[in-house]
Amino acid sequence: MFCSVLVLSFQQFSLVVPRLLLKAPTQGELNCSHLHGDFTFGSTCAFSCQEGFVLMGQESRVCTATGTWTGDTPHCEAKACPMLSAPEKGELNCSHLHGDFTFGSTCAFSCQTGFALVGSDSLGCTAMGTWTGDSPHCEAVACPVLRAPAQGELNCSHLNGDFTFGSTCAFSCQEGFVLTGQESRECTATGTWTGDATRCEAKTCPVLRAPAQGEMNCSHLHGDFTFGSTCAFSCQKGFALVELQSLECTAMGTWTGDTPHCEAITCPVLRAPAQGELNCSHLHGDFTFGSTCAFSCQKGFVLMGPQSRECTATGTWTGDPTHCRAISCPELSPPSRGQLSCSHVHGNFTYNSTCAFSCQEGFVRMGAELLHCQATGNWSRAAPVCAEDGAFLKQVLAYSSGSALALAGVVLSGGLIALLAKRLSDREEKRKLLKPTSDLGAPGTFTNTAYDANL
Ligand SMILES: *[C@@H]1O[C@H](CO)[C@@H](O)[C@H](O)[C@H]1NC(C)=O
Ligand SMILES: *[C@@H]1O[C@H](CO)[C@@H](O)[C@H](O)[C@H]1NC(C)=O
Ligand SMILES: *[C@@H]1O[C@H](CO)[C@@H](O)[C@H](O)[C@H]1NC(C)=O
Ligand SMILES: *[C@@H]1O[C@H](CO)[C@@H](O)[C@H](O)[C@H]1NC(C)=O
Ligand SMILES: *[C@@H]1O[C@H](CO)[C@@H](O)[C@H](O)[C@H]1NC(C)=O
Ligand SMILES: *[C@@H]1O[C@H](CO)[C@@H](O)[C@H](O)[C@H]1NC(C)=O
Ligand SMILES: *[C@@H]1O[C@H](CO)[C@@H](O)[C@H](O)[C@H]1NC(C)=O
Ligand SMILES: *[C@@H]1O[C@H](CO)[C@@H](O)[C@H](O)[C@H]1NC(C)=O
After folding, report:
1. Residue 352 CA: which ligand 7 atom is closest?
2. Among 20, 149, 222, 245, which is least packed, fewest CB within 10 Å?
3. Ligand 8, atom 9: nearest CA belongs to which residue?
4. In terms of pTM, does the model score above 0.90?
5. Cα(266)–Cα(311) distance, rounded to whole angstroms?
6. Domains and CATH numbers, the chain
7. CB-based contacts of 89, cutoff 8 Å, min separation 6
8. What's the gap in Å between 175 CA and the centre of ligand 1?
């Protein structure tokens, strides 16, 4: 480049011929000092740049004797800032005024959905060649930290950071519990979780009721009639449990067994006493707690022991065993001069005992031969006595009518009758003869056939 050396030689053209003037660089300034005249030999021009720009090239140029400027034309370049790059998961939008990432450049930062900018959202390149701040970064939007539900577990996979956008948490419950709510939740771009809170609820078992005549006592660990609940059963007095005493709700939602029931405690089966009857009323079952049995005896017997017995809560009968005892008649003894022969059906001198009387030779029985013990406890007749023959003869005569004897066509002397009575006294026919009257309370007769046979 030439400076106006020519000015000296062609002074007249100085105003006409444009001199090789130096221009200030863009964004810069020029400060020339002219020794001999503007832009003439010896002129020195100093270059400087505005703030934010650096001079590239000579700082000053001197117009030489040959009419040229020393050096090259310098220029001002905007100060460079460190290059910026988009943050991870984010974007960068820069506008450059003077050149990429130089003084005057501004860069705006933004993040992808689900990510939030941490730091200033825009930076400017200062005149010092530094950015107005540190580069921001994108952080995944955080969701509230999730915890495992009670009795459950949490299995999270984190894409961008713990409990942040993209995190997915799967829930599971311990054995015996069921999940209510979402099985998995995801952290959304807005910092909230999808779905509602998840809970683990204990599996429910069918509701149990106390058995009839019994009680139930349940303890619930996680909720009424749910996994872990245990129910104990008991029965009222007089009843016993059949099967298990307690049940537990399992992890499957089923009970460890069937509901037990209460059964009345049993007493030994009672039988009617011999010669008696039994009349039982059963409240809860045959011969069980609450059963009452009444006893009665047949005619001729009396009840010994309680009239009724009850089955108690301990499975035993109240009172002692009952039996029927034959009613006793007064004990008979043989008459003097006579004998007694008894047959006892139910015991010595009791109901239905039969006693036969007989008299020694020379004596006659006066009264019934056979006595019967009756249900009233009395003998059927008064006991007979054995009397001497004479007495018997008088009796016979007293009770025999004259006509009856005449009919028989027999005339008996006193001695004959005595003989007859003696012969008959120990013979079976005697009873036959006396049969029509059977005792001395009524008149009787002797048949003559019997009489003839004995002569
Ligand atoms: C130009 O330079 C001279 C001498 O170096 C100085 O005195 C003057 O202030 C400068 N002028 C400007 C405008 O920079
Ligand atoms: C960058 O920013 C400018 C000005 O704000 C805007 O017009 C342009 O759309 C943006 N570019 C992108 C890719 O965001
Ligand atoms: C969590 O889930 C992953 C993927 O489904 C599986 O591989 C891992 O075993 C699980 N961890 C637990 C403790 O369940
Ligand atoms: C139920 O069982 C518990 C524990 O065994 C006991 O403390 C409580 O008294 C029982 N309740 C009844 C009404 O039996
Ligand atoms: C048994 O007893 C009941 C009640 O006391 C009575 O109604 C019933 O007639 C009795 N049965 C017999 C066979 O005695
Ligand atoms: C019946 O009488 C006999 C003979 O006297 C006697 O040995 C027996 O013990 C009596 N029986 C009863 C049940 O009294
Ligand atoms: C008692 O004797 C009568 C008459 O012989 C008879 O019918 C009855 O069955 C007897 N009773 C008993 C309990 O022996
Ligand atoms: C039977 O005996 C009882 C006493 O044991 C007496 O009171 C009653 O009169 C007697 N009955 C007869 C018919 O003899």
Report:
1. 1
2. 245
3. 378
4. no
5. 8
6. 6-78 (2.10.70.10), 90-140 (2.10.70.10), 152-202 (2.10.70.10), 214-264 (2.10.70.10), 276-326 (2.10.70.10), 338-454 (2.10.70.10)
7. 111, 112, 115, 138, 140, 160
8. 90
